[in-house]
TrEMBL record:
Gene Ontology biological process: iron ion transport
Superkingdom field: Bacteria
Domain ABC transporter: 11-247
GO-annotated molecular function: ATP binding; ATP hydrolysis activity
Organism of origin: Arthrobacter crusticola
Membrane topology classification: Peripheral membrane protein
GO cellular component labels: plasma membrane
Protein name, UniProt field: ABC transporter ATP-binding protein
Pfam families: ABC_tran
Major subcellular site: membrane
Subcellular location: Cell membrane
Gene3D superfamilies (UniProt xref): P-loop containing nucleotide triphosphate hydrolases (3.40.50.300)
Amino acid sequence: MADTPRVPSTLEARSITLGYDERKVVDGLTVTLPPGRVSVIVGANGSGKSTLLRGLARLLKPSSGSVLLDGQDLRSLPSRAVARTIGLLPQSPVPPGGITVAELVGRGRYPHQGWFRRWTPGDDAAVAEALRVTDTLSFADRSVDELSGGQRQRVWIALALAQQTDILLLDEPTTFLDVAHQVEVLDLITDLNRGSGTTVAMVLHDLNLAARYADHLIVLKDGRLAAQGPPAAVVTPGLVREVFGLVCTVIADPVAGTPLVVPVGRHHTAPVPAGAGTGAAS
């Protein structure tokens, strides 16, 4: 008998308000992560991107509204069950002192352990594969403290991958990486999504990379939803000016065909060459 196709989990926020102490950062926001797709959250600094991700990961309790996992309030579910479904790479995580790369990545398997379920060859295989695809296998026995910022970031991504969750939340996964490794990591995340149907939501600062890799863009401004949808429908000169305060033209990326934001700037105000276009790519 053929295997039953896996139904991706659904994660959504309904009218959530999030903040710190008395400071409101996200205000009455409703978003749904399209199951089995890659969503990218963008916005200016301070717009609430990381705060929204923390709310979706149950690290931050909404002061109003709710986050639902497959229709159930996230806060009502057991922590281990949530950890088996939602993986998180937070912003600037701090490793325990003296821990090796392999040991840190192995912690991604903890949600799969239990009173009667110990470490198995399957756990070894999951850790080895996470190390391999993030190109960190060669320094698996080194202390995380010895690594460069870029190497350390790839190790944290390996930990998230080793968790093998249905939903993966990534807060600035390309931090500390040079351009080549940024593209490598985003290609890796895309492969994971396409190969296993993992639902991905990540925060990125680079709008052009976001437009290239996202199936679904979520654009925030001052803690509220400014726009959402496919990049080709969302990324326009008007939206970029409204949300980022940047005068630009938007052309088709010559490699990916996705929207490419070209800043104008005070010293480069010449008209766009004929045929380059000023709207989002179709």
